[in-house]
Amino acid sequence: MAGGRERLQSQLDLLDPKGPPRVELTYGSIGDVEGPVEVAVLDSSFNPPTRSHLNMLSHAAQQLGFSRTLLLLAKQNADKPVVGAGLTQRLEMMQAIAESAEPAGSMLCGITAHGLFVDKAAALKGLFGSTSRIAMLVGFDTWIRIIDPKYYENDALDDVLRRIFDTFEVVVVSRDPSSASNLDDDMSIQEQERLVQQVPADITQKRLHFISIEPEMSAVSSSAVRKAVASGDSGTVRSMLPDCLHAYVDAEGLYMEAAV
User: Fold this and answer.
1) Best label site of 96, 102, 112, 246, fewest CB within 10 Å?
2) What's the predicted TM-score (pTM) here?
């Protein structure tokens, strides 16, 4: 474990947010792939990874026909400080999930120093190649942040979105509004889909998708897991946290303090 953690920390240290956008694989390889890579990417803070993360990735990969998946962690997100698990701990949890994925070798893990979506788009294309087919999964609450003009200078949002959809497909996944701080509590899944579809077709190039997951899964969140661990609610922890992570979270003493 110590040696693996040192390797992960070294990979983190080498990523420069001021340098060109790139993704560094921390688990898995694409060296054995013949032809263009086809991969569904879940970009999240993984603090911790949850059953919902795996459920949405599985749904999207099956519906859109992807045989490989990637768990992607940003070293620096646009508006999320590092609290709870450290970045190396999150990468270790991601790897534990990837190691248990079927078929073996189908799930990759990666890290990037860039938090903005458009930078991640460029980094993924650089990793997988210009002919690759990439779909980026985001929760609806994250999509709302991506299209928020406050993150872009000089009214550049439309140009940024065009660059994104020139690079890959985007899959927006429904979210339970009660578990997302930036959504109205009464926002329905139908309203979420309507807002996603409002992006003009000349920008999306028919590469923007919306999928709805089971209500019980859309209510599962990393923050809910953190609160359950802190309060000693083992039943909720078991229902939301993948089995392969239970022992790790206990051994590392994660999330024992009041959740944030």
Assistant:
1) 102
2) 0.87
